[in-house]
Amino acid sequence: MVNSSGGVLYPKRLPEFHRLPATGAAAELVAWFWIPEWDIEQGGFSRQEIVGYPALNLVVEHEGVALSGPTTRASHRDLRGRGWAVGALLRPAAVAALTDDPAALVDTARALTEPSLHAEIVAAMASGAGHRERAVETFSRWLVERVGRLDESARQANALVDVLGGAEAALTPVEAATRLAVSVRTLQRMAHRYVGVSPAAMIRRRRLQEAAQLVREDPRADLAAIAAELGYADHAHLTRDFQSVLGLAPRSYRAGLSE
């Protein structure tokens, strides 16, 4: 199931926003597609704050195509005027066809020259009712053709992300390596080659996203209980993680949700 707001720090502030599932062969390449659309009155803006998934995104906008790397901290974008974006949260199996060094894209993005993808997505987004679905179909077809047949290492890299971020996710790199029947060193190499950040960083990001989501879903939830549920040593550990990535404490984040 596609989580409609995971990673979005303040969902109530979003403009029109959709997450669509990847299907067929594209499901091995994309976790989901995300499509914001906005029309902001002149002189105004909408600030969108995100604590990103430990993954790369391929994003098409009216201005062009970009490959965005994983982030080490919360980020934001101020939306102005009228626009849209069609993004694909990439699974590791798609990454090798787009970059040979995802670590070089951490906290940055690189423009790609992909005129056919750009033209087809722009046309789909301007096509009236059903435009989002057509954009996703176009994007999926392009990615499947671009990546080609997957080898065993690509599928193992997908399994790595599933073990570190899926249901009943591993709590440590050692546990993840054991489940995948590889050494911790092999696990680290896979993460560097296909994601760009370490397994430990992926685990920390997942826990922080889950903590933020629990705070959003139940503003009265006890923070110490959230910390214990997610494997933090204590409430102070959760607070340090929040402050290092989001730049504010859990209580301050909770207070800001009502704004």
UniProtKB/TrEMBL annotation:
<dbReference type="InterPro" id="IPR018062">
    <property type="entry name" value="HTH_AraC-typ_CS"/>
</dbReference>
<protein>
    <submittedName>
        <fullName>Helix-turn-helix domain-containing protein</fullName>
    </submittedName>
</protein>
<dbReference type="InterPro" id="IPR050204">
    <property type="entry name" value="AraC_XylS_family_regulators"/>
</dbReference>
<dbReference type="Pfam" id="PF20240">
    <property type="entry name" value="DUF6597"/>
</dbReference>
<dbReference type="InterPro" id="IPR046532">
    <property type="entry name" value="DUF6597"/>
</dbReference>
<feature type="domain" description="HTH araC/xylS-type">
    <location>
        <begin position="175"/>
        <end position="256"/>
    </location>
</feature>
<dbReference type="InterPro" id="IPR018060">
    <property type="entry name" value="HTH_AraC"/>
</dbReference>
<keyword id="KW-0804">Transcription</keyword>
<dbReference type="InterPro" id="IPR009057">
    <property type="entry name" value="Homeodomain-like_sf"/>
</dbReference>
<dbReference type="Pfam" id="PF12833">
    <property type="entry name" value="HTH_18"/>
</dbReference>
<keyword id="KW-0805">Transcription regulation</keyword>
<keyword id="KW-0238">DNA-binding</keyword>
